[in-house]
Design a protein that fits this description.
Largest sheet: 4 strands, mixed
Order of helices and strands: EHHEEHEHHHHHHHHH
Length: 291
């Protein structure tokens, strides 16, 4: 078997990163404390099994790094450093200093960073909800509404891509529908923020006045037409269910069906979606209205 020095190598481009320093260091509790003093605007520490791994002697030099940016900020490794302090067990690890400060968004080692983690660092007050909404909206843009509202198999989106979307569209696309998304998710527990965001954004772009009226009826702020009353009943039954909530895709389909009936001026006798069985019903398209 070839040794490590015989492993295939890429082109040496270290001359392109003259400000970056890489070393292998033994970090004990005192050094870990000093490094954590540079832990500014990072995500909240996560529970992990690192401390137990250190106590059990399982730590190995494995290529993962402690990373500091070119501003001196710790951008990766806080959970490992906390484990060192907690256990008193030093670790041998690679330390990188001098990478670009915004490179933190591309790091996904140790405990996985989420969109919500980054939004919390940036000071968003409702970072879990905003993150869920943004992920849904990006999935809808890249994969379509049906895949975006599914709980699984809804398509991959990157953390960096979602953050870029938030930076570009927060004021225009997310903030305007945030109050309605919050209210619907709180009123009907089976409707996640991601689903209502995808549908609210679509409805709003079709007809702002109709969107406002539909949502006001759904939230019992105005007298509701028959399709919205049927929808409210289904969502209330789902929220109170003791046998399991409806799949997100089904919830989304029911909301779309109510919207379609509302926009087309129809008064259905019932509101159902049958995705299975011998004759599965296709996921509904959103009506632009014919009334």
């Amino acid at each position: 078997m070839a040794g490590s020095n015989d492993a295939a190598r890429g082109a040496d481009v270290s001359h392109l990163y003259k400000g970056v320093e890489i070393s292998i260091e033994r970090i004990g509790p005192e050094a870990a404390k000093e490094m954590l003093e540079c832990n500014v605007d990072n995500r909240s520490p996560k529970k992990s099994a690192l401390a137990k791994a250190l106590e059990d002697g399982e730590w190995q030099l494995n290529g993962e790094t402690i990373v500091f940016s070119d501003t001196g900020r710790l951008i990766d490794g806080q959970n490992r450093l906390i484990a060192v302090i907690k256990t008193g067990v030093p670790i041998d690890t690679i330390v990188v200093r001098g990478v670009r400060d915004d490179s933190q968004q591309t790091i996904d080692t140790g405990v996985k960073r989420t969109v919500a983690d980054y939004l919390k660092m940036q000071g968003y007050k409702e970072y879990p909800r905003v993150a869920a909404m943004a992920v849904g909206l990006v999935k809808a843009r890249e994969h379509g509404i049906e895949r975006a509202v599914g709980k699984t198999g809804s398509g991959d989106v990157t953390v960096k891509g979602v953050l870029a979307y938030i930076d570009k569209y927060y004021d225009k696309r997310i903030k305007p529908i945030l109050p309605r998304c919050r209210a619907v998710s709180q009123k009907f527990k089976g409707v996640p923020s991601s689903v209502i965001a995808v549908l609210a954004d679509a409805f709003k772009r079709i007809d702002l006045e109709s969107y406002e009226d539909f949502m006001a009826q759904l939230l019992d702020e105005r007298e509701a037409c028959r399709p919205v009353r049927l929808l409210r009943n289904r969502l209330e039954q789902n929220a109170d269910s003791k046998t399991g909530k409806l799949p997100h895709r089904t919830v989304a389909a029911l909301i779309i069906k109510a919207w379609n009936a509302y926009m087309d001026g129809e008064e259905p006798m019932r509101l159902v979606f049958a995705p299975g069985g011998a004759h599965p019903e296709p996921f509904p398209e959103i009506s632009r209205g014919g009334r």
